[in-house]
Design brief:
The protein has nine helices and nine strands. By secondary structure, the protein is of the alpha/beta class. The strands form two sheets. Strands 5-6-4-3-7-8-9 form a seven-stranded mixed sheet. The protein has a two-stranded antiparallel sheet with strand order 1-2. Helix 8 links the parallel strand 7 and strand 8. The longest helix is centred in the C-terminal third of the chain and has 21 residues. The radius of gyration is 21 Å and the shape is globular.
């Protein structure tokens, strides 16, 4: 039986991966959990507990080999294998995603963009031609992309999600301001940009209140 990993641990894994990548680029060979904790603002104990969920990877008295741990976390996250992504919605968010070249470096290749706006169809974003939504089903069934990034209006998101999963998509990266829930084996990551901004606003307010009390 596969071990169930908490969502909190899973959320921290990309941070470990990012910090380890920075260390690799600085030619750092090894690092202790204490040193890593100072960089990430996570306790050394928490780091050890997180990594022990997957086997530990460290050696007592040595710490962690940066290159090895980086590669192993990449495997855990599944980014040691390439993923193909299509973007549905060529508005500001969709175009920003298409223009972000770091996704390709992480193994996420954007292969197509779709939209309903006739003024956008036929134009290109970062070398990718925007296609009509009329061709979406045919494209999915023929090329079988791994992920669909939805950057469509809130009202359209549920029906678009239902369609693409019916046509063969098994993972959705949802940027529409609504929570998507689909039955079956569809994996969904709901991204709420406004919620993130509100959390930032809360932190700013709390900081100001603390300063006023001092």
């Amino acid at each position: 039986m596969q071990k169930v990993i908490s969502s909190a641990v899973i959320k921290r894994l990309p941070r470990y991966y990012r910090y380890l990548d920075e260390l690799r680029k600085k030619d750092v060979v090894r690092i202790s959990s204490k040193e890593l904790s100072e960089k990430m603002n996570v306790t050394a104990s928490q780091i050890r507990q997180d990594l022990n969920n997957f086997g530990g990877f460290g050696q007592q008295g040595y710490g962690y080999n940066v290159e090895y741990l980086y590669n192993e976390i990449g495997k855990i996250l599944g980014i040691d294998l390439p993923h193909t992504v299509i973007i549905i919605g060529a508005g500001n968010i969709g175009r920003a995603i298409a223009n972000y070249d770091d996704f390709l470096r992480r193994g996420f290749q954007i292969t197509a963009i779709f939209d309903v706006n006739p003024e956008l169809i036929g134009s290109e974003v970062n070398g990718i031609r925007i296609q009509s939504m009329e061709h979406l089903r045919e494209y999915i069934e023929e090329t079988k992309p791994d992920i669909a990034a939805l950057t469509v209006p809130k009202e359209q998101a549920p029906s678009v999600a239902a369609d693409v999963t019916a046509w063969g998509i098994h993972a959705i990266w949802n940027f529409a301001p609504t929570e998507l829930f689909l039955s079956g084996d569809v994996v969904i990551e709901n991204v709420h940009l406004t919620e993130s901004l509100m959390r930032l606003s809360y932190k700013i307010r709390a900081q100001k209140q603390k300063q006023d009390e001092e």
